[in-house]
Amino acid sequence: MSTEETQAIIDSLVFKKRHTDACQTDNALTEWQPLSDKRKRCSCPYWSCGVHDRAEGFKRKSTGEISLERAKDVVRLRLDTGNRTARLEDATGTPIPDAIADFMVYTRDGGAAESTLKKYQTLMDQLKAFADWKGLRYLHELSQDRVEEFRRNGDGRQKTP
Description:
elongated; mainly alpha
């Protein structure tokens, strides 16, 4: 796809924030309502709304970004590569597998019983599977809403209703 075609698609899309339950409660908002300038900025992700591909028709797709510029860059990357789940590289942050490994070493060195280590390893394997399923790579992407979703799903791989 050419640069001009990609830019035309991005220009035709509408970018809106989809507010989390906590944000809606804190700011007295509905799910898609914009924040007024008088309220604090929220960390809810932008979604791209519109026709990304003629074969799909109108879709709302999460960009996973809280900055409008980065949200547009994510859509541009996805259109250019053809990968629907492509994400911008973020050089900062702790990768989830590294955090899990550090946690297990700390727990093991702390003198935890073998049965406790087995339970923690099972939980960490489930967390890793959930993160892979959701496309999460860094620890900072595990927001409160994501952790609650993981807890609701039990093993983290079942779809939510």
